[in-house]
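User: quick one, sequence for these tokens?
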């Protein structure tokens, strides 16, 4: 890696959220984009559990997977793009897409996890509306009786 690369500046200027958690699942890194997307300031979240942004119904599943990753030092997701709901400070549900990576010290001991997150709520809502419109159109088309044409008539 280039020694001239300013990782702190990169962390600050990225348009996608970057969230870093320690092995206990507490937030230790939160960039400006994370504040914009989730509504919480950095001061509000540092030291808080990641479950702050995870919907209640998904917390157990998250915690089991997180704990397993901290124990094994691996994640089954790696570079896979995950798409899940998340919580905004104001109570809204967001649709997010993210990648996650494990962090290690020089002795290859797990020091935490980092996620790069994009808010896809607007795209998700548009897609849902299009699916609903298509389903409505298909239902209407199925309800319209088919008329026969002269070529269909048997003599």
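Assistant:
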């Amino acid at each position: 890696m280039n020694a001239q690369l300013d990782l702190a500046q990169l962390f600050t200027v990225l348009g996608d959220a970057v969230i870093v958690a320690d092995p206990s699942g507490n937030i230790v890194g939160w960039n400006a984009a994370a504040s914009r997307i989730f509504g919480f300031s950095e001061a509000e979240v540092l030291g808080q559990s990641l479950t702050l942004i995870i919907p209640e119904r998904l917390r157990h599943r998250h915690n089991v997977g997180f704990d397993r990753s901290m124990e094994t030092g691996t994640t089954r997701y790696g570079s896979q793009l995950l798409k899940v709901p998340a919580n905004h400070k104001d109570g809204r549900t967001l649709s997010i897409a993210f990648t996650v990576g494990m962090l290690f010290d020089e002795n290859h001991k797990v020091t935490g996890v980092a996620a790069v997150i994009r808010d896809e709520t607007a795209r998700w809502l548009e897609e849902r509306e299009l699916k609903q419109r298509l389903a409505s159109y298909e239902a209407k088309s199925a309800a319209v009786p088919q008329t026969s044409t002269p070529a269909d008539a048997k003599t």
